[in-house]
Amino acid sequence: MSRPDESDPLLTEQIAYYRAIAPEYEDHTIPGPGEDELIAAIDAFQPTGDVLELACGPGAWTERLLYHATSVTAVDAAPEMLARAKARVGEDRVRFIQADLFAWAPDRRYDVVFFSSWISHVPLDRFGAFWSFVADCLRPAGRVFFIDDAYRTPDELIAGESSSTIRRRLNDGTAYRAVKVPHRPADLEDRLRRLGWRVTVTATSGPCYWGQGMLDRSRGQGGG
Fold first, then answer.
1. What is the structure's pLDDT at 221?
2. How far, CA to CA in Å, does 205 sit from each of 33, 76, 84, 104?
3. Which of 179, 182, 170 is nearest to 15 (CA)?
4. Domains in the chain, start-ordered, CATH in brackets?
5. Nearest CA to 192 among 148, 151, 224, 150?
6. How many angstroms separate the Cα of 81 from the Cα of each of 59, 78, 160?
7. E-state strands within 77-152
8. Residue 31's pLDDT is what?
């Protein structure tokens, strides 16, 4: 188990938020259509082989990955989320790891790296380093698939729309700060292309988007 990166108070608070929200996670589902589109996109992508799921949360997407994968390694910083994921999907073909994704290093490589509701929580100044980490997790022909959204309510924007720091509340009103970068599909594609990735990002009919692709190993990868 890796320790959280306590050098960044905002990221430490973000982990605390996801630990605290675990029992009521479904109460905070983002409204709007699009879930069927995401499921269809994953099934069309076919995440076969050995899959690494980053920030697995309560295991909703872990369950879908197991339709295709030979094995899933599911990583999350919140033990409360991992407990829910284990209860949901069991441990047959799944290895659960508690780790801060900004401090963890994989012990093997994978055919697919998958993450949902995570890339928007990666600060922009860590974006390049995160994608270098994803590259290190993949086998030479490995692929990536991710899901996210740019949904932020006016009440969350404690520092204005230009800031990626937001404040979210539990059902009892307890507030936590977190990172929420409102990526737009075209801008995200461009940012990834400049890092050496060939990724297509597609918007759903609702607030979410998905991305799929792979590292362009003929170009190498930048770190910025």
1. 53
2. 6, 28, 29, 34
3. 179
4. 9-215 (3.40.50.150)
5. 224
6. 8, 5, 30
7. 94-98, 110-116, 138-149
8. 80
How far apart are alpha carbons 104 and 79 in whole angstroms? 15
| Predicted local distance difference test score (pLDDT) of residue 2 | 47
Q: Please, what's the b/e burial string for 69-78 (b: 16 or more CB within 10 A of its CB; e: otherwise)?
A: bebbbbbbbb
Residues 6+ apart with CB under 8 A from 162: none
| The residue type at 105 | A
Report pLDDT for 1. Answer: 42
Which residues lie closer than 8 Å to 40 by C-beta, 6 or more apart? none
What is the three-class DSSP state of 210? strand
Find how far residue 12's CA is from the centre of its chain.
17
State both tokens at 34.
Answer: 């699009």
Return the structure tokens found at 95. Answer: 């290895």
Tokens of residue 213, six digits: 């692709």
Predicted local confidence at residue 207, as pLDDT: 94
Q: What distance in Å separates the CA atoms of residue 7 and residue 167, rounded to the nearest whole number? A: 20
The low-confidence residues of the chain, meaning pLDDT below 50, are: 1-2, 4, 222-224
First to last CA, the chain: 28
- In whole angstroms, what is the distance from residue 5 CA to residue 100 CA? 7
- The bridge status of strand 138-149 relative to strand 208-215 is antiparallel
One-letter identity of residue 106: P
How distant is the alpha carbon of residue 213 from its chain centre?
Answer: 15
CA angle 5, 8, 11 (to 5 degrees): 80
